[in-house]
Amino acid sequence: MKAVKQRPDERLLIEAAQKDPARFAELYDDNFERVYAFVARRVYVRADAEDLTAEVFHQALAKLGQFEWRGVPFVAWLYRIASNAIADRWKRAAREQGTQLVDDPPDISGGANPEESERRARMFRQVAELPDDQRRVIEMRFAEEKSIREIARDLHRTNGAIKQLQFRALTSLRAQLKTKANKKASEKPSRKSGGRND
Amino acid sequence: MTNQNLSEQLDLMVDAVLAGRGAASRLGDKKLAEFATIASDLRDLPRADFKARLRADLERRTAMATSAKAAPEVRATATPYLSVRGASAAIEFYKRAFGATEITRLVQPDGRIGHAEIDISGARIMLADEFPEIGFKSPESLGGSPVNIHLDVSDVDAVARRAVAAGATVVRPVQDQFYGDRSGQIRDPFGYAWTISTRKETLTTEEMQRRIDAMAQKESEGAPESRTFIREGFHSVTPYLIVPGAAQLIDFMKTAYGAEERFRVNLPGKETIMHAEVKIGDSILELAEATAQFSATPASLVLRVSDVDTIYNRAIEAGATPLHPVADMDYGARGASVKDDSGNSWHIFTPNPGNTLFESFRSVTPQLNPLRAPVVIEFLRKAFGAEELDRAQSPDGVVHHARVRIGDSIIGMGEAHGPYQPMPCTLHLYVPDADAAYERALAAGAKSIQPVADQPYGDRSGGVTDPFGNRWFLATHLRDVAIPE
After folding, report:
1. Are B38 and A22 in contact (CB < 8 Å)?
2. B135 interface with A at CB cutoff 8 Å
3. What's the domain range around B134?
4. In chain A, what residues touch B42 (CB-CB under 8 Å)?
5. What is the mean pLDDT of chain B?
6. H-helix or E-strand spanning residue A67
7. What is the arithmetic mean of pLDDT over B132-140?
8. ipTM of the complex as predicted
9. Phi, psi of B29, deg, nearest 5
10. Which of B198, B190, B123, B127 is nearest to B160 (CA)?
11. CATH number at A7-110
C-alpha cells in the first residue's frame, strides 16, 4: 500500500465530510481517477466502468459515517467497495444467464495492484493538465474513441495537425512518467550514501 | 526520424492499441513500446464530462442529505442564467470555445430548451432558449446585453483564440492590465460579452489604486511623448542589422532603395559603425558593425515598393546578388529576391492593383525562416504576446506562410525550404514594460544577453536570445534624449 499517495490532511478531510457531507466533494476530487482506473481495468465496457464508479462513490457517501480511521488510506476503502460491487455484478450476470461463468471473473481482489491504479490515475490527471488542444485530442481519441478524421473535422484542423497534437501529448505524458521514474531511482542511492556518512 | 514520421507511426500504433491488437511489435523500439503502454492505459481514460456529471450528482445528493438533517448554513452562490436564441447551438459554441461540458438539458414539448446547465472548468452557467412570451428575452431580441461575464482561465490567449475560431468576435484584444490580469473581451455569437482573464500578478487594492493614480497623473501632465513606450518614428519591431560592412550597406540601401540616413555613431576612434539608423519608406532599420561581442546576424527582409522591376535593377546595379529574378507570384504580387554584400536577403515585392493582402505590411517587414514555425509562434506568443494572424499550411503540416503581430508590427514567417534556411536575426522590440517582457521571454525559454537597465539614450532595455537563435533587444522608451550632433 505504500505506493498509494496519501494526503497529509486526508484524515481531517474525512472527518470534515463525516460532519458535513458537502465536503465529500473534496474526497471525490482526490480519488475519482483512482477508482475509475481500478474499475475500468476490471470491466470491459465503458458504460459499466461509469456505472460502477458512480456506485462506488454513492455507497461511499452513504456509508461514510461507518468509516473509521485506522491509518489506511481512504482509497483502500474505496477499492474494497469497488471490488465488492464488481463481484456482485459478476454474480448477478451469472445468475441472470443461469449458468456458471466459464471463465473466472477478472482479478478483483483489492490488493492486487493498487500501484497500477495509482500510476494510471496519475496519468489521467496529467491528461487534464495538458494544454487545452492536446487534452481535447487525447480525450476524443481515447475516451470518445473517435478517429483522427472525426477529431480533425470537429476541431476544424487538418489530420496532420491532429496527429501532431496527439504526438506532442503522448510525448509529454511519457516525459512526465520518466521524470517520475527517474526521481524514484535517484532517491534510493542518495539515501544509502547518506546512511554511510552517518 | 522527423516529427512527421513519428507522429504517423505513433498514430498507427494508437490505432492498433484502440482496436485491441496491441502494439505492433515490429516496431521493436523501446520508446514506441513505452508509448504503447501509455496508449493502452489511456484506453481507460474517463470521458471528460463523466467526472463533472458524477460530481454534480453527488453534490445534489449531499445537498439533500444536508438539508434533511438540519437547517444548514447555505453558502450563497450567484450563477449567470443566459437567455439565448438557439440554446442548443450556444451549448455547442461554449463547448468549442471554452471547453464547456454539458451537465443538464431539459427540452420542452415544442423542442425549445427550457433549462440547461454547463460547466466551464468548475464554473456553472445556466441557460435556456428565449421565451419572449413570458418576457425571457435574448440579447438578440433586446439588441444587446449590458451584463458582462468574467471568466477566469489559465491561458487567456489560448481561450480567446479558440473562442474567436469558434465564432466569437473580439471586443477588446487580450493585453496586460494594470490590475495584474491579462485579459480581453469577446462577444459570443449569441450577444453575450465575456471578459476572459488570467491572473498574472496578485496586487493589493492599494497597489492597484497607486497604478490608477500614476496613470491619471501621467494623463494630466499631458506630455504626449511620455504616454508612449515607442521612440518617435519607430514601430514595435525594428530589424537590427548587425553585419560586416555596415557602412557599405547604408550606401547600398541609399542607392538601391532611396534610404535616408537618420543617425550614425562610429566606434570610438574607428571608422566602423557602432550604431546607425536609416529609414526606408515608413520603416526604420538599425545597423551596427558585427563585433566579437555581437556576431553578424544578417536578416531576411520583405521590402514593399511601388515598382519592383526598377528597384530590383537598381539593387543589382548597386552590387546585390540576384536570388530570384522579378516574376509574377501566385499570391497576387510581382516579386524578386536579392542578397546584399553584408548577407541580408531582400524579398522585394509590389502588390498587384486591388490586392489588399499586403495592407498590413510596412515598407520593411522582417521575415523568419524557422525549421518549425508553430514552436516559434508559440514562443513569440508567450514571450511577447504575439498574435497569429494567419497560417498557410500544407496537408503534411509544413507552414509555408504565417504572419504574427507584435504590438503594431508584423513578422512574416515561412518554414525553411530550399535556399531559404533559418537566418537568426536581431530584432529591436518596443514593449510597454521591458522588465516584464524580459522575464516572460526567459520564462518562455530565451537566454539572457544583457539584463534590463536604463540606457543613456532614454530607453530602458535588455537583450535575450530566443531558443531559435534570434536576438531580441527589448526596450521601453522612457524619455527623449537630445542626440549630440
Report:
1. no
2. no
3. 81-199
4. 123, 127, 138, 142
5. 87
6. none
7. 90
8. 0.84
9. -120, 130
10. B198
11. 1.10.1740.10
